[in-house]
């Protein structure tokens, strides 16, 4: 009898453990599946965000935010896709929404400042950057700080921020170009020319820097093209820029000659240069 009681108790114990084991396994599987779903969804968000059509990404994230308004990853995706779609006013509002969520980070506030700059809301951008602690030292933060300082003509701060930004990136061509344009706007043409040259050493294909380099040389009445890599079409465009710079300096005959050279150099009909030359010739 005693053996029967012990056997029954043992069976109950085994069955209880089996039942608990199934329950534990079920919970573990559910957790694992949830983790997989989060990973898959995160990957999908990245794929959508980097899709070729930014407006399609906007539509996807708008639907996602409508279904899950407090999901910060969906809100970030919407804000970033609006920037890609060049819908900057909407993007600024979307980043504002992101920064209001509990899980918002300093990086999100930097993105908000970027969106505000794109809408020419410089004062708001500065206020936003002021909320980011000094410990958040990133390339984008300092590049934006430099641009804001430029907008306020705080040249000393701008130079410091540009220099810091350059030290935080492996691709500083764009920063050198922006810094050079800052120097150009201040009338420091020689230093602007040097910085544009640095930009082109980093990225020989950056046409904006080529064009700005020509502007800096033209402002010094140096009307010869720099020795840089350029296509035939680029050469014609740079000659056109140089011509306009010469005319602005009052060297009209030089400008006319440069326009003729630009028209002859361009592999196709260079309508803009032709119209500019006609205007000069007709007084």
Q: What is the terminal-to-terminal distance? A: 124 Å
Report the uncertain regions.
1-22, 32-36
How much of the polypeptide forms β-strand, as a percent range?
A: under 5%
Helicity range? over 70%
Average pLDDT number: 88
Question: Helical region count?
Answer: 14
Shape type: elongated
Write down how many β-strands occur, each being a DSSP E stretch of 2 or more residues: 0
SS class? mainly alpha
Characterize the main sheet: none
Spell out the helices and strands N to C.
Answer: HHHHHHHHHHHHHH
Cα-based radius of gyration, to the nearest Å: 30 Å
Organism: Tritonibacter horizontis
Protein name: Tetratricopeptide repeat protein
TPR repeats: 173-206
Keywords: TPR repeat
Task: Walk me through the structure.
The protein has helices spanning 2-49, 54-67, 72-84, 88-100, 106-118, 122-130, 139-151, 155-166, 173-186, 189-202, 207-219, 232-248, 252-265, 271-281. By secondary structure, it is an all-alpha fold. The longest helix has 48 residues, at 2-49. It is elongated.
């Amino acid at each position: 009898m005693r053996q029967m009681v012990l056997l029954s108790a043992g069976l109950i114990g085994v069955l209880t453990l089996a039942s608990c084991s199934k329950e534990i396994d079920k919970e573990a599987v559910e957790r694992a599946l949830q983790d997989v779903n989060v990973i898959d969804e995160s990957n999908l968000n990245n794929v959508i965000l980097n899709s070729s059509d930014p407006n399609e990404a906007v539509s996807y994230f708008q639907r996602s935010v409508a279904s899950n308004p407090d999901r910060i990853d969906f809100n970030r995706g919407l804000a970033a896709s609006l920037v890609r779609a060049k819908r900057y006013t909407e993007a600024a509002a979307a980043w504002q929404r992101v920064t209001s969520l509990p899980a918002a980070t300093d990086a999100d506030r930097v993105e908000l400042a970027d969106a505000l700059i794109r809408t020419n809301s410089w004062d708001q951008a500065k206020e936003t950057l002021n909320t980011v602690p000094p410990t958040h030292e990133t390339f984008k933060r300092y590049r934006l700080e430099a641009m804001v300082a430029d907008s306020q003509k705080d040249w000393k701060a701008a130079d410091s921020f540009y220099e810091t930004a350059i030290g935080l990136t492996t691709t500083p061509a764009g920063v050198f170009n922006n810094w050079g344009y800052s120097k150009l706007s201040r009338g420091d043409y020689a230093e602007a020319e040097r910085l544009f040259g640095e930009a082109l050493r980093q990225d020989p294909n950056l046409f904006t820097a080529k064009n700005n380099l020509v502007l800096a040389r033209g402002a010094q009445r140096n009307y010869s093209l720099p020795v840089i890599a350029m296509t035939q079409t680029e050469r014609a465009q740079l000659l056109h820029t140089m011509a306009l710079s010469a005319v602005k300096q009052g060297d009209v005959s030089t400008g006319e000659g440069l326009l003729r050279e630009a028209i002859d150099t361009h592999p196709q009909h260079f309508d803009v240069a032709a119209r500019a030359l006609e205007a000069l010739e007709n007084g």
